[in-house]
Amino acid sequence: MDFSVIIIIAAIVLAVIIVLRLLAKPIKFIFKMLINTVLGFILLWLINFFGGGIGISLDLSLLNALVVGVLGIPGVLLLLAIRYLL
């Protein structure tokens, strides 16, 4: 095998490794946001379902969805605190 072919193969492997490392963080971030959104939505739904009997509820609005999507369960707790403490 020619030395230039070995160098080209090594450069391609190195480029693939670099691209995969650069894409790993955004994929982890998107996955974490998806998990936060799902858990927060479940908690929002549970609060609205069970809390309706005792007067606790949160609207399902775009702003609430964004807060829950970014913060997850702490976002739901923050929304409850803002709604009932302020």
Offer a quick outline of the entry:
This protein is mainly α. 84% of the residues lie in helices and 0% in strands.
Task: Give the uncertain stretches in residue-range form.
Answer: none
- Overall pLDDT level: 84
What is the string of helix and strand elements? HHH
Alpha-carbon distance between the two ends: 74 Å
What is the molecular shape?
rod-shaped
Number of strands: 0
Q: Which structural class do the helices and strands define?
A: mainly alpha
- Helix fraction? over 70%
Radius of gyration: 23 Å
Largest sheet: none
Percentage of residues in DSSP E strands? under 5%
Number of helices: 3
Question: How are the SSEs ordered, and which strands pair?
Answer:
Elements: H1 3-51, H2 62-71, H3 73-85
Helix pairs in contact: 1-2, 1-3, 2-3
Provide a descriptive summary of the structure in words.
The chain has 86 residues and is an all-alpha fold. The protein has a domain at 26-85. Helix content is 84%, strand content 0%. The chain is built from three helices and no strands. It has helices at 3-51, 62-71, 73-85. Helix 1 crosses helix 2, helix 1 packs parallel to helix 3 (73-85) and helix 2 packs across helix 3. The protein starts with a helix and ends with a helix. 9% of the residues are buried. The model has no long low-confidence stretch (mean pLDDT 84).
